[in-house]
Design a protein that fits this description.
The mean pLDDT is 95. Strand 4, helix 6 and strand 5 form a beta-alpha-beta unit. The protein is of the alpha/beta class. It has two domains: 133 residues, Rossmann fold (3-Layer(aba) Sandwich); 68 residues, DNA polymerase, domain 1, CATH 1.10.150. The strands form two sheets. The protein has a six-stranded parallel β-sheet, sandwiched between helices. A two-stranded antiparallel ribbon has the order 2-3. Helix 1 crosses helix 4, helix 3 crosses helix 4 and helix 5 packs parallel to helix 10. The chain is built from ten helices and eight strands.
Length: 210
């Protein structure tokens, strides 16, 4: 792997855990529409990192696509209201790590979340000064490999790497033609990676010494 000039981070499972807030947003909407169902954290964990279309099909199979989209939009609207107040759990070492890494690399966040959620996370964590740009699935409904390439082209990146926590992140990195850095403390598992770290502090140390 060549020395990178930029680091593109996944968000959920890589920088923070906001699954409890995400779960609450689903359950409040389920209650509002009298769906008679409760989402539990473990159920949502299985779908973290999926794009919106796949999530809708899995969570709301009894509805047609138009109704699924309507419900999903309500969930995301509520989520954008809950997140600034409730936030999530920032992984150990992330704040200091991003501050250090930003002195050596351009940093980006790319996630399969709804539009606006990455910006809420950036503001909540107070890391705007460290992040060059961000891209969410909800902006253009395109897969991660497309958006990795998009960020690469937009910012003239020469050797970006993608850092994530699931097998899907690895697959999308391969499709984008960039190295994949796997963090084991997140929500998924994979044996296909170029580098692996068990905590954010180790990741930071490696790239600061590279």
């Amino acid at each position: 792997m060549q020395k990178p000039d930029s680091l593109i981070f996944d968000m959920d499972g890589t920088l923070w855990d906001a699954v409890d807030t995400y779960t609450e947003s689903w359950n409040l909407i389920f209650k509002k529409i009298n769906l008679g169902r409760i989402m539990v954290r473990e159920e949502l964990l299985e779908r973290i990192g999926w794009d919106g279309e796949k999530v809708m099909q899995a969570v709301l199979p009894e509805f047609d696509r138009e109704k699924r989209q309507e419900i999903y939009n309500e969930v995301n609207d509520l989520r954008r209201k809950l997140l600034p107040e409730k936030g999530g759990i920032l992984y150990d070492g992330v704040l200091d790590g991003l501050k250090q890494l930003a002195t050596r690399y351009r940093l980006f966040i790319l996630s399969n979340c709804a539009s606006g959620v990455i910006r809420i996370f950036i503001d909540w964590a107070d890391i705007d000064q460290h992040i060059t740009d961000e891209m969410a699935y909800g902006v253009n409904c395109m897969p991660k490999h497309h958006n990795i390439k998009l960020l690469t082209e937009m910012h003239g990146l020469k050797n970006p790497v993608y850092i994530g926590d699931t097998a899907g992140d690895g697959e999308q990195s391969r499709l984008a033609g960039v190295p994949f850095v796997f963090v084991t403390y997140g929500f998924g598992s994979t044996d296909d990676y170029d580098l692996k770290f068990h905590d954010f502090k180790s990741l930071t140390q490696y790239f600061m010494e590279l």
